[in-house]
């Protein structure tokens, strides 16, 4: 009999302990759920009350991320490695030209930045922002500390005199406007497309009557520059 009574007491005690644990867990769960719910409601109310501000801040953050991505990609998109296999590079230059023709506008500007920098003939080569560039895409500084403005135009080589997308007098005039305002005397236009006769006539007249000089680099000039880079024993890798 004492043994049965002892077992009964232990069993009852275990039941009470289990019940207490369950109730304690329930209380803790209720407290945690309530706190989480309060936090979520506070977050929701904050978002609701400041939705406009959050949108503006989010847009600014996205712009900063895009700008940083552009900044670092412009430095790393075109890599140079030592290579003296010029027969291989002659083929690769042709492949590069085909890729250049398919580039977007900003991508072509980044390529031109890489190209001028790879020549190692300028003290500095600066790529201007994608927007609000004030009429120039790249700023070069030669060994005599003269600044040269570069305008990059990635146009189709099939453009004819009847098409809008080719180098004409209006593009030259816009570039000259930026040059005059900054007292710059030399500029380069780099294009994958054709050049209208009125552009050549304007440039000749400009050089005759002023100290301003504009050179135009076509796709053939780009090929020669790439070969010049190749002659230095460098290979260009598209990344």
Tally of contiguous helical segments: 7
Number of strands: 7
Strands of the largest sheet, in order across it?
2-3-4-5-6
Task: Tell me the series of helices and strands, N- to C-terminal.
Answer: HHEHHEEEHEHEHE
Structural class: alpha/beta
Indicate the CATH topology of the largest domain.
Answer: Trna Endonuclease, Chain: A, domain 1
Percent helix among the residues? 55-70%
Please compute the radius of gyration using only Cα atoms.
34 Å
Calculate the mean pLDDT score and round it.
78
Low-pLDDT windows of residues: 3-10, 79-88
- Shape-level CATH architecture of the largest domain: 3-Layer(aba) Sandwich
Total domains: 2
Beta-strand fraction estimate: 15-25%
Overview in brief:
60% of the residues lie in helices and 15% in strands.
Description:
The protein is α/β, with parallel strands linked by helices. The protein has helices spanning 2-49, 51-76, 86-101, 105-119, 169-181, 197-209, 219-231, and strands at residues 78-82, 124-127, 138-141, 147-153, 186-191, 213-217, 234-238. It has 2 domains: 2-49; 79-238, Trna Endonuclease, Chain: A, domain 1 (3-Layer(aba) Sandwich), CATH 3.40.1350.10. Strands 2-3-4-5-6 form a 5-stranded mixed beta sheet. The chain has a two-stranded antiparallel sheet with strand order 1-7. The protein is elongated and about 100 Å long. The termini are far apart.
Q: Which features would summarize this protein structure in a list?
A:
five-stranded mixed β-sheet, two-stranded antiparallel sheet, 60% helix, Trna Endonuclease, Chain: A, domain 1, alpha/beta, disordered N terminus, 239 residues, 15% strand
